[in-house]
Design brief:
about 200 residues; 4 helices; binds coenzyme A
């Protein structure tokens, strides 16, 4: 836990440790590595476009700002053995108006070199435990474009349940191939045994 002054209050920044990973506040040194992930066409295949360095830095600053404000959020993920930044995983209140908002979503984006190790699932499982434990949320959602099978598999590995209905993401224009999204939910009462 890291204490930080925030508008006269001491904000407790929550950090999470798993067997192989640390979910922590963002650092300046993460920004160039994050920009590389966001510029990678394969990593960004299911987003409208890769991000410029400026857009990537803005996103890192946004995630960092929310963690500074509320103590939790979309954490930077570091591999413990190497202390290397490998991407993000965490919790976020979607700002778009979606059929199921307000809600808290769980999201992940890792460097391609880190895929295939179970890191996204390990980080997200800990973030879900945090959501249901520390934050006492009744449910957490996750969504992605219909064809993002790797991300959907993470949702399934976490034991999340798919909603039968898909939805159109309003930030993409009508007819865009990535516009149709699937939605999964995780429920606190189904993981209650983790918190007794
Ligand atoms: C989505 C994303 C994070 C998934 O990464 P991933 O490495 O496939 O997922 P996990 O970290 O859960 O790893 C699971 C894989 O690691 C393998 N694995 C190896 N060791 C493992 C271990 N100890 N535990 C669990 N899985 C392990 C699994 O077999 C599985 O491989 P498979 O998919 O070929 O069956 C990654 O594809 C990504 O960053 N994509 C770009 C960003 C993106 O699309 N984000 C989602 C937008 S909504």
């Amino acid at each position: 836990m890291v204490a930080q002054k925030n508008e006269g209050l001491v904000m407790r920044i929550q950090e999470i440790e798993t067997e192989r990973l640390r979910l922590r506040q963002w650092q300046d040194s993460d920004y160039p590595l994050f920009a590389r992930i966001n510029a990678d066409v394969e990593s960004m295949r299911f987003f409208p476009a890769p991000l410029t360095v400026e857009q990537s830095n803005d996103l890192a600053r946004y995630c960092r700002g929310l963690i500074a404000q509320q103590g939790w959020g979309v954490w930077a993920v570091e591999e413990k053995t190497t202390a290397k930044f490998i991407g993000f995983t965490g919790l976020h209140k979607p700002t778009d108006e979606l059929p199921f908002t307000p809600c808290v979503e769980i999201a992940w984006r890792l460097a391609r070199a880190a895929w295939g190790n179970g890191f996204a699932t390990e980080a997200a499982s800990a973030a879900l435990s945090f959501a249901f434990g520390e934050l006492a949320l009744p449910e957490v959602v996750s969504f992605t474009t219909l064809t993002n099978a790797a991300s959907e598999r993470v949702m399934q590995r976490l034991g999340m349940k798919r909603e039968p209905q898909t939805f159109e993401h309003p930030s993409l224009p009508s007819g865009h191939p990535l516009r149709e999204h699937l939605l999964y939910r995780a429920y606190a009462d189904e993981r209650a045994s983790d918190f007794v």
